[in-house]
Amino acid sequence: MRRLLRVTVWAAATAAVVVVCAGAWFYDAAYRDRSFPSQETHVIVARGSTFDAIARQLAREGVVGNYLAFRLLARLRGEEEGAHAGEYRFVAHQTSSEVLEALTTGGAQVAAWVTIPEGFTAREIAARLQESGIGPARPFADAFAHDTIVLGGTRTKSLEGYLFPSTYLVALGASPQQVEAQLTGEFFAKLPHDAAARAKRLNVTLPQAVTVASLVEREAKADADRPRIASVIYNRLRLRMPLQVDATIEYALPAHKDELSFADLRIDSPYNTYTHAGLPPTPIANPGRPSLEAALSPSKTDDLYYVYCGNGRHVFAKTLTEHQANVARCLH
After folding, report:
1. Does residue 245 contact residue 219 with C-beta atoms inside 8 Å?
2. What is the pLDDT of residues 220-229, one digit of tens each?
């Protein structure tokens, strides 16, 4: 019995020593060690990264000295969900506790990932920039509405249509001009090299072709329909028929509407393609590459009408009678 007691006491003492040593190790690694990072370090955290992946990246890039201690610290604090993708700047010689605080409070963040979906308007992009913490929406919206670029020898009326949809790493506090440079730079990079020549063959300027692309972007749901919708637009332009594109009405309205009324179709606006012939004054959204390609290489058809028929697809018609039958079939 005494021997068993001695073994039990020895095991308890050993366990206590282990716990004390582990605690001392953890405290030192998390709260005292300032050997990392050895210099100011910038880290870009990819979108969708788990906290485990972020912790491993910080250890790999020399921001924290001990991956396990950093993970344990985050778990004990309940802060494993607090880190976000983006770019971070960590000053030299911080404890792991300070690194974790800077990571989860945003104190070290210097840039954020911003996703601009295809078909967003300039106003929606400005709102997305504010939501992402880049800066207030109003200065971005104002700049996008008044700044211009030269495209195909023609100066645009605004930047609507030329803020390319993609995912960007944007500096927090970036000026409108800095963001414009990123987004329009990507537009020029993604624009086909022969875009001006292709637009000329279609008897439109390059900005007009981008306007067609914006209409396609807002109207189409399936990539396969985009060149054919572009064909309808060019055919109507050639015949001097009103385009009657509902998306242009929605663009002219002060707020989004799921369904347009007959009164909406009579709105007094140069963007009303029911009452004004030709293209709207500017693009009505920022098109992606598929819509740009469709506008520059439309299908060769005699179609003049289309209607959405469900399942992501449109049906097309050459005559009004055929179109009315499609409408009756698809919408009733």
Report:
1. yes
2. 999 999 999 9
Q: Do 304 and 242 contact (CB within 8 A), yes or no?
A: no
Instruction: With 0.90 as the threshold, say if the pTM is over it.
Output: no
Beta bridge partners of residue 44, listed in sequence order: 87
Q: How many Cβ atoms from other residues are within 10 Å of residue 248's Cβ?
A: 25
Q: Are 226 and 290 in contact (CB under 8 A)?
A: yes
Output the CA torsion 123→152→165→178 (10° steps).
Answer: -70
CA 295 remoteness from chain centre: 22
Helices (H), the chain: 2-27, 51-60, 67-77, 96-105, 122-131, 137-146, 176-190, 195-201, 206-219, 226-238, 246-252, 289-296, 320-331
CB 29, CB 65: distance < 8 Å? yes
Q: Which residues have C-beta within 8 Å of that of residue 13, sequence separation ≥ 6?
A: none
pLDDT in tens, 172-190: 999 999 999 999 999 999 9
**Contact present, 218 and 285 (Cβ < 8 Å):** yes
319 within 8 A of 311, measured Cβ to Cβ: no
Q: Tokens 């211009």 map to which residue?
A: 148
Interatomic CA distance for residues 231 and 210, integer angstroms: 14
Domain ranges of the chain: 195-331
Written as one letter, the residue type at 284 is I
What strands lie across the sheet with 167-171, from one edge to the other?
41-45, 86-90, 109-115, 167-171
Q: Quick check: 152 pLDDT over 90?
A: yes
